């Protein structure tokens, strides 16, 4: 059995879908059971599942309740065969990642040695891990020394951005391979399952995913959509400036909303990932807490012109060029994972 250690006990669409995509890729390529580790920081669970319920806005309150319910129902189908009796003794390999599980400066739970493999004596691989905006200058020497020991116990390490590569290199003098987020290397079947699409929109719309938009950016979005005759919807998050907010969605419906949109405006890392994957026209607002992991992908795919501040570049993304680069990176990322796993399952 392979156990994946990541953030999955969540209502964050990106975290859920990257967990499922990694599990899906492994199961498609190896005859092995895959288990998602049950561990999840309590502070993070509270922040994502329960804190949104503390609001005087009834729309946000009931939308959050519906979102929790629909995601729990979706997870029962998406993550089948999750319950194994005494599975700990069955695990041959632990895969850590993706997501910001190595974010030492994480404001929600701080340094967590569990995500660096402490107390796990199984073979360990890291796939597409991120440290987010961690700065080693703000990390104590005691924690640095412990992380060095823990990282040296990994058989292979891959990361998903330059900042994380630099983090690993400074600590253990190893240059890890930069790979793609799991959502780009595999498409789980449930994302194409009409049963899980609760709502279809019968009009052309611009999709907003995220909340980090300035007043001037909001004005730009309104002007653009008025010019293009597009309605504006927000998914996953409540934006007061948007008339139609769809909070109660499961991950399949969320993915379907992106797939059927005319254009995407996002401040989220996975908003960029899914827009690129689905060849959507999009613009992104640079969220400071996500800037490091976004930068590596944007640099590599030459998508700088899709960032907007007080204006939009009205050009179109040439996906013929993007897809050539992306397909090569998909193959190299898949190969890293395949080689890292097969070595220990033979």
Walkthrough of the structure:
There is one protein chain. The chain is of the alpha/beta class. It folds into two domains: 2-186 and 329-345, Rossmann fold, CATH 3.40.50; 189-324, Rossmann fold, CATH 3.40.50.2000. It is built from ten helices and eleven strands. The strands form two sheets. It has a six-stranded parallel β-sheet. Strand 1 (2-5), helix 1 (13-29) and strand 2 form a beta-alpha-beta unit. The relative contact order is 0.14. The model has no long low-confidence stretch (mean pLDDT 90).
Task: Give the helices and strands, then pairings.
Elements: E1 2-5, H1 13-29, E2 34-36, H2 42-50, H3 58-78, E3 93-96, E4 123-129, H4 141-151, E5 156-159, H5 162-172, E6 177-178, E7 205-209, H6 215-228, E8 231-235, E9 244-246, H7 251-259, E10 263-266, H8 269-277, E11 282-284, H9 291-301, H10 319-345
Parallel strand pairs: 1-2, 1-3, 3-4, 4-5, 5-6, 7-8, 7-10, 8-9, 10-11
Taking the sheet with the most strands, its summary is: 6 strands, parallel
Strand content: 5-15%
- Count of the domains: 2
- The fold-level CATH name of the largest domain is Rossmann fold
The H-and-E topology, N to C, reads as: EHEHHEEHEHEEHEEHEHEHH
Mean pLDDT: 90
Strand order of the largest sheet: 2-1-3-4-5-6
**For this structure, what is the CATH class of the largest domain?**
Alpha Beta
Count of runs of 4 or more consecutive helical residues: 10
Q: Which structural category fits the helices and strands?
A: alpha/beta
